[in-house]
Amino acid sequence: MNKPNVTIENIEMKVIYIRFKGTYVAFRKESKKMFKELFDFAKNNDLIVEGKTKVLTIYHDNHFITDQKNLKMSVAMTIPKSAKVTEEGRICSMEFAGKYGVLHYDIKLNEYEKAWEYAYQDWLFKDSKEKPRDNFPFELYVTEPPRNLKNTSLTDIYIPIE
User: Fold this and answer.
1) In sequence order, what are the residues at sequence separation of 6 or more whose Cβ sits closer than 8 angstroms to the Cβ of residue 139?
2) Could you tell me the pTM of the whole model?
3) How far is the C-alpha of 77 from the C-alpha of 58, rounded, in Å?
4) What's the pLDDT tens digit per position in 145-155?
5) Among candidate residues 54, 77, 155, the one with its CA nearest the CA of residue 109
6) What are 119-147's pLDDT values in tens digits?
7) What is the spatial distance between Cα 73 and Cα 152, in angstroms, rounded to a whole number?
């Protein structure tokens, strides 16, 4: 895995999402079904904007602090700020904004953990002068996540900063 390019961005984002509570392993098993449910909802409600809609995974807890079976993660999809959403079933919506350090990766399926370790342990606390902000980090998939260990994906990791 190569060292990522890093940019600082101020973002405003509106998303629909489905929250999951449990271990990372259980989340990975369930996430494909959750993303399908999200896409079906977005398609049925005309929320997908060709070339602009992005998908992401939001991490609401720190796995070093929170018990594994209580971790909260969300699969999410960006939607237009003007979109009116009626939440239904497991589908919710939220808006968030702020300053983020964005680490731009081209990574393999088995490199995500190392990418996150670098983002926090090296970039945030050693290489940058940025201070963490109390908000949730997330992965934004620029290209579809890899399905095997050979292929790579363009993935941006967003770290909330002051």
Assistant:
1) 56, 57, 59, 112, 155, 156, 157, 158
2) 0.92
3) 10
4) 777 778 898 99
5) 155
6) 999 999 999 999 999 999 999 999 887 77
7) 23
